[in-house]
Amino acid sequence: MKFSALAAIVPEDLEQECIDAARELGAGGITILAGRGVSNTARKTFFGLTYDGSQSVLLMVLEKGLSLEVLKAIQKVIMPDNKDSSGIVFTLPLEHLGGIDFSQVEKFEQHLKNSQE
What we know:
27% strand
């Protein structure tokens, strides 16, 4: 079985919707980090101060095939009109992995069996 690391940087207000989308597809543990970003176009607010908003960084380890499904589901949340994105999501292949919960591996194996049927 091959694994991927999925990282999604999403606006804080879309965090729970992205988590729900990932969990519906079978994602288990998700690490959530608070973040703050600077975009290429600054947004002006009150008194000329700029604010780009708070972001959440979602990190998860998934079976390779499942990671693509989760990526697409999160992309629908952060890019509903298929034009302007309010975040970014990407995967990276994992060569070595330790410490993953065996029950999660069993869920991944079941997902593989179901997708092959």
